[in-house]
Hints:
This protein has a domain at 50-147. Helices cover 59% and strands 0% of the residues. The chain contains 8 helices and no strands. It has helices at 7-18, 22-28, 35-48, 50-62, 72-88, 95-104, 111-118, 126-150.
Amino acid sequence: MRRRYGPSWMQRCFNGFTRLSTDLLHAIIEEDISAKEAWDWLRNLFQDNKNSRAVALEHDFSHVKIRDFPNASAYCQQLKTLSGQLKSVGGPVIENRLVLQLVAGLTEAYKNLGTNIRQSKPLPPFTEACSSLRLEEKALAEIDDEAPAAMVVDHHDFDEPPLNQNTGNCNNHRGKHNH
């Protein structure tokens, strides 16, 4: 006899299934399988592959680069997510390593910030490093916004003579008068 589960358990179950990849979902969905059996199957799958998953997550964590994200917040969130996933497979990431990976994935635009963080003793907490990164991102965006305004050039039509120039007398002697 199958055990019945309450609505909140069913909702959590449904939410979990909506986060599965299509391949995994097709592998576990069968007509005669209960939600609990599906969860047990998934748990066994991930526990059996724990070491392989740890290796893949370690690779992903070590290769996260800010250039692959739309903004600093998304970059920091991905580092934090991968850190949590590594912890779940027995490979916890210490705070210093998280901060150093954040610095390692920065682009040239953030070189000064990276140097400042790296040379801090002790290293700042991850949340503080992310906050500094977001502030630097904002400052760089403001500089980019101001750059086009600094490039404005005075425009003169070639048909009109420049102002304050004596057009009737070509004098190349710069202040010397020939009489």
